[in-house]
Amino acid sequence: MTDSNPSFLPRIESVFYAVFDEHQGPKIVHQVPEGLIAGQHSGTLNPVSAVGSLFTTSPTTNTTPGLEQDAPITQLPASALSSPVLSRVGERPLFPSPQKRGTSARFLFSFDDVSKYIIPPSALCGRIVKYATRNHCIIGFPVELKGNYRRNYFRYNLCFVFDRNADLSCYEPIVRKASRVLTACEEESAFLSGPKSSAAIPAILEQLYEDLNSYSETSIQIDESNAIDLKIFPFYPNPPPVKDWQVPLALINLTRRIEPNWDLTVAKVCPYIDGTNHVARIARLADCDIELTRQAMAHLLYYQVIMMIDIFQYSNMYTLRKSVQWLADEPHVREECGPYVTKPDRDTPDWPKLLHLYSRLKPGVTMYEWIEEFDVQDLGIDVRRFTSFGVVKVCFIMLMLPLIISATSVYRGFCVECIGGQSSSDHGSRSRSQH
């Protein structure tokens, strides 16, 4: 799956911390991974000396001409290791290893092009700011603090970089909360502006990057009274309207997930979701109101534990997708297909036989003709489950649909390709005979 799918969390490509420097203006102080953002005013401060370079010319070079070499972490004064985060600096690498740097040789974007949006004017501080480059999207929560600073204010921003097309709605609360916790630390103990405690920022960025990408949550104890506790909750897209003739197909074992506190209608309809019953029939079998059944199906669709397919008709036509070339060798497809499509108390056909039957589905051949030609019923195959498995894994549907030429003309059928089966017709056999 790609990040464009709204049900999956987008991957963080970079995390960086930027401030407004009194001499250089907006600049990057730390970033993870290192060396992904180019620009004249981007720099990675050494944890002790605050002197360094954001990127190096060689992934394996330890020193850069004209710049001081990073001081080892062991040179940190003991007083700087007073917080839990700082005490972990010696345990966690601040920057990627040379091997990781080699994979990050390309730049995501130039910081100079986006600096005025990373450290924006006062009017934009204290709110979510997003900025899209050609291939990436940057989201941050710029903060301006008034107080005893050299310019009477301190501006900073903790930013996350994603793919340009990623849906960042689930990350907005994450960015906002992380910035507010850091703001509280700065107001209490000058955590961000202090030369000693700011050495912990690279470790914080790295843990944010690793934990949120790997586990979708993190817990970072900054000091005795402050911690960054984050958990990402995905935002699911609204489901499409549920039609009575659609067939719900369970993507998980729903009967094993039923709990006493579930909605009564959802609990009653789940046992009848078998990949063959359509919504109206499920309502009748479960003795539920049809409108409540539609709402229950929409609820299950929202959490993406079911999907909708077309109702089975003998006039339907199917053909193979190109993906069958690699799906044929997928172990999970080979293992799941036979038991799913075989009727109870019948021998399971082997995978080559089932794949051969799928390969015989083609435009111009209805399911009724296909069943008669290959004696599918004698093989103990449930044709409805065979086609539902095919729609999900192997095939895409081609249906005979009626076409009205004028208000007084008769219906005429024609074939259209409907990926995933979004249309249905009971006139398939009749309209095909009129061609």
Average pLDDT confidence is 78
Please tell me how large the radius of gyration is. Answer: 30 Å
Low-confidence spans? 1-7, 42-105, 408-435
Q: Write down the secondary-structure element order.
A: EEEHHEHEEEEHHEEEHHHEEHHHHHEEH
- State the major sheet: 6 strands, antiparallel
Envelope shape: elongated
Number of domain modules: 3
Beginning-to-end CA distance, first to last residue: 41 Å
Our estimate of the beta-strand percent is 15-25%
Multimer state: single chain
Helical amount among residues, as a percent range?
Answer: 25-40%
Structure, described:
- This protein has 435 residues and is an alpha+beta fold.
- The protein has 3 domains: 14-231, no CATH class; 247-309, Orthogonal Bundle (Arc Repressor Mutant, subunit A), CATH 1.10.10; 317-433, no CATH class.
- Helix content is 29%, strand content 19%.
- The protein contains 14 helices and 15 strands.
- It has helices at 84-87, 98-102, 111-118, 172-189, 201-215, 264-269, 279-286, 290-302, 324-327, 331-341, 351-359, 367-374, 383-394, 428-433, and strands spanning 14-21, 25-32, 37-38, 109-110, 129-132, 136-140, 143-146, 153-163, 217-221, 227-231, 247-250, 306-309, 317-320, 395-404, 411-418.
- The strands form 5 sheets. Strands 1, 2, 5, 6, 7 and 8 form a 6-stranded antiparallel β-sheet that branches.
- It is elongated, with a radius of gyration of 30 Å.
- Mean pLDDT is 78; it is low at 1-7, 42-105 and 408-435.
- InterPro entries: NPR2-like.
- It holds the Pfam family NPR2.
- Belongs to the NPR2 family.
- This is Nitrogen permease regulator 2.
- GO terms for molecular function: GTPase activator activity.
